[in-house]
Design a protein that fits this description.
By secondary structure, the chain is of the alpha+beta class. About 50% of the residues lie in helices and about 15% in strands. The N terminus is likely disordered.
């Protein structure tokens, strides 16, 4: 069948959905993979919410601990309260302070026992902690995290120096606060009023363990992200190597084919690849070979045309030159006949050359129809005219009934094939001979044979007779009456129909030639109209 075609408009619609052609395929692959990694990098946003949940959970726990400590202090005897406060601070890791109603600090666990934590100065930290703080700032900036205020150590430790303690004393309810210690670690505090004497309990802690947990999670995410980036880059380069490099090789080969610098351009076929790129490489290789064959055929055809036209032109020139020099009327009439014969020969050559040159282009654009081949050939056999320049021969046809053998093709072109074979057989047949046409089905193929009673075709000439302008005619046909294009045109048409044409001896052993061509049989053709042949 004729090849499928794609309209320019549909190609433009498909191209409109693609990425801009200014970006190379390698960069597109990298961009897609990096985009996926950017989604993975969103885990740093999760770290901020994770830290917030840890801090909220710690403040809730501190509020409960402060409530338990406050209840125990209210129930304890006055002489036991200090001991109870120190034990509670050591057990919870908190710094516990009690402020009297006048705001003065009355008890501090850090002055009564060993401090449970120590505030660090940033300039005293080792280099790895300083780098960790820089990374903290970077991640918080990327995650758009809201930083809390820094802790300002009061010069005089009174109730008024702690806003949460003032609020707890005023509202008589627990109040929590979150600040940054000088080294950017969480500083948490909970204030709760005591029942007796209007005192206020303040519990504080420098929760460095929260920062350590968040940094450990950040390190794990960073390692995973780094490994993913390396793997993604390596995979991208691998894909670029397996996709882009072969495409570049094919593009360079296609450019060489287009420029036509070399006689033979080797397009890589990539035989080891079984994917779409391998299919593309083999298709381009086959296309370039077909193009080279087409170019070679065109060059050879042009040379043959030039050679064939030179003979009648030279004869015509000689005849015309002689007409101006010879005075004998009989000889002038003879030269005039020669000139007229050469003109007719040129006209016939030009017509058949034009037809032969259009065959390929017409077949590539012609949609094929469903054809009843038996009906087509039977009609051709019945309607064959009698030619004055050929011997009188009988034409017989043997084939199946109508509606049994169907093929896909162009009925006009297939008619041309059969007529050319009949003309060829008739020109070689003796007076009173017979040309026999037979149509048979052999599996999924249809075989059409044209037999004559002529001298046959020698074994050495059975391929040469299908070349353009190759003609070995009987003497009775005279010189120049046949262009030698009939069989070449027939084979070209059949090859365009994915068929074949060859010549062989007659199976009955009698003298004569048997030309056979095959076409693919169509066995299933629902709802397809059969093309009528006029």
């Amino acid at each position: 069948m004729a090849p499928d075609t794609v309209s320019t408009r549909s190609e433009e619609r498909q191209a409109s959905g693609e990425w801009t052609n200014r970006i190379s395929l390698t960069r597109r692959i990298l961009a897609v993979n990096i985009f996926a990694l950017a989604i993975l990098a969103g885990g740093f946003f999760y770290l901020d919410s994770y830290r917030a949940r840890l801090i909220d959970g710690r403040l809730v726990a501190m509020t409960r601990e402060a409530a338990v400590i406050a209840a125990a202090m209210d129930l304890a005897e006055p002489q036991e309260r200090t001991t109870l406060l120190v034990r509670s601070a050591q057990a919870t890791g908190l710094r516990l302070r009690i402020y009297a109603q006048n705001g003065r600090k009355s008890v501090d666990s850090f002055t009564l026992a060993t401090p449970t934590y120590r505030m660090r100065r940033p300039d005293e930290d080792p280099i790895h902690l300083q780098i960790a703080r820089v990374l903290d700032r970077i991640v918080e900036t990327i995650a758009f995290a809201t930083a809390p205020p820094y802790l300002a150590e009061p010069r005089e430790d009174r109730l008024e120096a702690w806003p949460e303690a003032r609020q707890a004393a005023r509202d008589r309810s627990p109040t929590a606060a979150y600040r940054f210690a000088p080294d950017r670690t969480p500083f948490l505090s909970v204030a709760r009023p005591l029942v007796d004497d209007g005192e206020t309990l303040l519990a504080t802690i420098n929760a460095r363990d929260i920062t350590e947990i968040v940094r450990a999670e950040r390190l794990r995410i960073g390692l995973v992200l780094a490994a993913a980036i390396i793997a993604s880059i390596l995979l991208s380069l691998f894909l670029a190597r397996t996709i882009v490099l072969p495409l570049r090789r094919l593009a360079r080969a296609a450019v060489r084919v287009r420029l036509g610098r070399a006689r033979e351009v080797i397009v890589p076929r990539l035989p080891d690849r079984r994917d779409e790129i391998g299919m593309l490489a083999r298709a381009i290789s086959d296309m370039s070979q077909a193009l080279r064959q087409r170019i070679d055929a065109t060059d050879a055809f042009a040379a043959d045309v030039s050679h064939e036209l030179k003979n009648p032109i030279a004869s015509l020139r000689s005849a015309l030159e002689g007409l101006g020099q010879i005075k004998d009327p009989a000889l002038r009439a003879r030269l005039l006949d020669i000139a007229q014969d050469d003109v007719r020969r040129l006209d016939r050559l030009v017509t058949e050359i034009a037809e032969a040159s259009r065959i390929d282009a017409q077949l590539s654009r012609t949609p094929f129809d469903l054809i009843d081949l038996g009906r087509l050939i039977g009609r051709i056999a019945r309607n064959q005219p009698t030619r004055e320049d050929a011997p009188a021969v009988r034409i017989s046809y043997t084939g199946p009934a109508r509606g049994h053998l169907f093929v896909m093709g162009d009925p006009q072109k297939l008619t041309r094939v059969v007529e050319n074979l009949i003309d060829n057989a008739r020109s070689f047949s003796p007076e009173g001979g017979r040309v026999r046409l037979t149509v048979e089905a052999h599996g999924d193929k249809v075989h059409v044979a044209v037999e004559d009673d002529g001298p046959g075709v020698p074994e050495s000439e059975r391929e040469a007779i299908f070349r353009r302008f190759h003609s070995v005619r009987p003497e009775r046909d005279g010189f120049g009456k046949h262009s030698g294009l009939g069989l070449a045109i027939a084979r070209t048409i059949l090859e365009g129909h994915h068929g074949a044409l060859w010549v062989e001896d007659r199976p009955d052993g009698k003298p004569g030639a048997r030309f056979v061509f095959t076409l693919t049989r169509v066995t299933e053709h629902p709802q397809m109209p059969v093309k009528a042949v006029k």
